[in-house]
Amino acid sequence: MNLWWHCKRWFQPEVGRVNLDPKRLISLDRQQEIEELMSSVGFSKPDRILPLRSTNNEVYELQYDHQFLVLKIDLNDAESSLLYEDAVLRFLKKQRLPHPGVLRSGSTEEPKLTWLLMNQEGYAMHFYRWIIPLLLYESGKLLANYHSVRFDENQQEEEGLTAGIRIDRLLPFDGWSNDMSKLIEQRIISPGSAETILRKLKRVTQPPGRSLCHGEFTLPHILIKKKRVNCAIDWPSACWSCPASDLAISEVYFRSIQYPFRYFLKGYRSMLSIDDYLAHRQEYMILAVIKRLRTSARVDQNHRFLKVMDQIIDGKYQP
């Protein structure tokens, strides 16, 4: 059936500013700290400071007369993920890839925090009432656009292509047995399932070459602006890795919320080949679930991811 017919049928107007967090009120101390921070970097006092929903950092929307900004704050004492994200975003800018524009970044000693100031480039896709196939198609093209940046080990030192971005050692599976043992101890998976998973993973060999991978290319991290896909946000998990494993993370997520992934895959395939991914599709999806379980504390999403993996292990998965 025609893709554009689906778009007309499913289209619904965007749901305003629903990513504002009404349950979290900004304290007077934090508001004063933000106002002082903005003044120190050459901005006037914001007209309004509104907290946004976020799972990792404190995020605020700063409203001015003709401009909206986003301020992310990290209160961790350890090396901040925001500094890493800042480096990734500047690399995206250098490569002329879609990205949220960074205005300023830095850290303060009193209070001790790291911050990142960006332009407001739209609103996350998962805050829209309906996701039309056209947006899924454009999202697939956007991920392929990022994956088109390849990592060349021979040129990394000469041209600075790593840009401080981590290199993910996806395979071989030296560490997966330990991960399985931990998941068994936590009663997340059964011993029988662990054996099946390891047997499947051993079929995959390290794909040649690496690409720039987002690490969690899902609806909360895809921005919509003027009803079109604009760019991806939240890059702390970015790395040089196998693009098929990055694509699998997206598929597991979309299947876990029962969205038609075929439109996403069609958009991706319009720019890059997916032969390697299709050759070991189920194995890559299992890898995506395990990586998610060992890095995320989101119990609700992890449960949905596990249901997808159970379908693969039980032979009930339908591409």
Q: Main attributes?
A:
5-stranded antiparallel beta sheet; alpha+beta; 11 strands; 319 residues; disordered N terminus; Phosphorylase Kinase, domain 1; 3-stranded antiparallel beta sheet; 12 helices
Number of domains: 2
CATH topology tier name of the largest domain = Aminoglycoside 3'-phosphotransferase, Chain: A, domain 2
SS elements, strand count: 11
Mean pLDDT equals: 79
As a whole number of angstroms, the C-alpha radius of gyration is 21 Å
What strand line-up does the widest sheet have?
A: 1-2-3-5-4
Explain this structure to me?
With 319 residues, the chain is of the alpha+beta class. The protein has two domains: 16-120, Phosphorylase Kinase, domain 1; 124-313, Aminoglycoside phosphotransferase (APH), C-terminal lobe (Aminoglycoside 3'-phosphotransferase, Chain: A, domain 2, Alpha-Beta Complex), CATH 3.90.1200.10. Helices cover 42% and strands 16% of the residues. It has helices at 3-10, 28-40, 81-94, 133-147, 156-159, 176-185, 191-201, 243-256, 261-269, 275-279, 281-295, 299-313, and strands at residues 48-52, 58-63, 68-74, 102-108, 113-119, 123-124, 150-151, 210-213, 222-225, 228-232, 239-241. A five-stranded antiparallel sheet has the order 1-2-3-5-4, covered by helices on one side. A three-stranded antiparallel sheet has the order 6-9-10. A three-stranded antiparallel sheet has the order 7-8-11. Strand 1 and strand 2 (58-63) form a beta hairpin. Helix 4 packs across helix 9 (261-269), helix 8 crosses helix 12 (299-313) and helix 11 packs antiparallel against helix 12. The longest helix is centred in the middle third of the chain and has 15 residues, at 133-147. The protein is globular and about 60 Å long. The chain starts with a helix and ends in a 6-residue tail after the last helix. Residues 1-18 and 157-161 have low confidence and may be disordered.
